[in-house]
Design brief:
Elements (H helix, E strand, L loop, with lengths): L3 E6 L5 H10 L12 E3 L5 E6 L4 H7 L4 E5 H7 L4 E5 L5 E8 L14 E4 L2 H11 L4 E4 L15 E6 L3 H5 L2 E10 L1 E5 L5 H21 L1 E9 L3 H7 L7 E4 L5 E9 L3 H10 L3 E7 L6
The protein binds phosphoribosyl ATP.
Phosphoribosyl ATP binds next to α3, β9 and α5.
């Protein structure tokens, strides 16, 4: 039987999130991380453990059929892959940073300057858009030390918490792009492989929807029901059941993480009581 080959990072920031997400989709990996290849025991999928930076090439060449990679790498490598789904982890941004207290009135500061980066294509594209001519120094690691050793006036690097910049006396100035982990695929999978992939995408969507939503139960006096229903988004409309106590109802619904606190405050103001918020494991829409 044909098996879908999925490339995931061998070790690094993306690996744990990638494996966890696939496990949440019910795909079991029996043998391990220190191998180059492993088989799922309960699903027609083989795992290829590769470097994140190599995954776009392997997927484009058909060595792997699909992959989980950082969007920044996908943009940098400029490969012809289908972007299927953002996965919500390994979030970061590619930014320009300069030594603290540098007089940097605008991006025009970079005109004629030296910039160190591991992302020359993304940086060049940004400079072209801004009409800036600068010298790009490509270095593969520890970009943040470049200004301190006199190698560059600025850097272009990934930032997540900002502590690396802070520790190296640098300040973030311009945002080039934002990134997170993405599921990618090579175009034109065979019908058999596409059918396997469709199942994975369906499961991933259910897992992601569950992460972004919470199940909410509350009690409310019947006279507040109309106003409370107006506040609630829900999948269709909330479930409302009478309580044993006369004049009161129990309301069940699903609310989105992004609007969570605003909605809770509004519901309290409308007379809702005894609210219970429960995580959702999977959400099939
Ligand atoms: O070796 P391989 O090719 O497999 O991996 P990689 O060199 O791409 O390295 P890895 O594992 O470090 O990063 C994998 C992916 O994680 C990146 O391509 C990004 O998509 C994503 N990611 C998310 C990050 C960060 N956050 C991140 N903070 N990648 C790198 N960093 C580095 C950054 O380069 C800088 O040195 O962390 C430092 C900054 O972090 P803060 O928190 O101090 O701001």
């Amino acid at each position: 039987m044909k098996r879908l080959k999925i490339a995931i990072q061998k070790s690094g920031r993306l690996q744990e999130g990638s494996l966890k997400m696939l496990q949440e989709c019910g795909i079991r990996v029996d043998n391990g991380r220190d191998q180059l290849r492993a088989q799922a025991s309960n699903f027609p999928v083989d795992f290829l453990y590769l470097r994140n930076s190599d995954i776009p090439q392997y997927v484009e060449d058909g060595v792997a059929d699909i992959g989980i990679i950082g969007e920044n790498v996908l943009i940098e490598k400029q490969k012809k892959l289908d972007k299927i789904l953002p996965l919500g982890f390994s979030k970061c941004r590619l930014s320009i940073a300069v030594p603290k207290n540098t007089d940097y009135p605008s991006v025009q500061f970079l005109q004629g300057k030296k910039i160190a980066t591991s992302y020359p294509n993304s940086l060049q594209q940004f400079l072209d858009q801004e009409g800036i001519k600068a010298e790009i120094h490509v270095i593969s690691g520890s970009v943040e030390i470049a200004p301190n050793i006199g190698l560059a006036d600025a850097i272009c690097d990934l930032v997540s918490s900002g502590s690396t910049l802070f520790k190296n006396g640098l300040e973030e100035k311009d945002l080039i792009l934002q990134s997170e982990a993405w599921m990618v695929a090579r175009p034109n999978l065979s019908p058999t492989l596409q059918a396997i992939f469709d199942k994975i995408v369906f499961r991933l969507k259910s897992v992601l929807a569950a992460k972004n939503n919470k199940y909410l139960l509350m009690n409310a006096p019947n006279e507040s029901l109309k106003r409370i229903i107006e506040v609630l988004p829900g999948i269709k409309s909330p479930t409302i059941m009478p309580l044993a106590q006369e004049g009161w109802s129990s309301i069940h619904t699903v609310i989105n993480e992004d609007k969570f606190w605003d909605i809770i405050e509004e519901l309290k103001a409308q007379g809702a009581q005894g609210m219970l918020v429960i995580p959702i494991q999977k959400m099939i829409i």
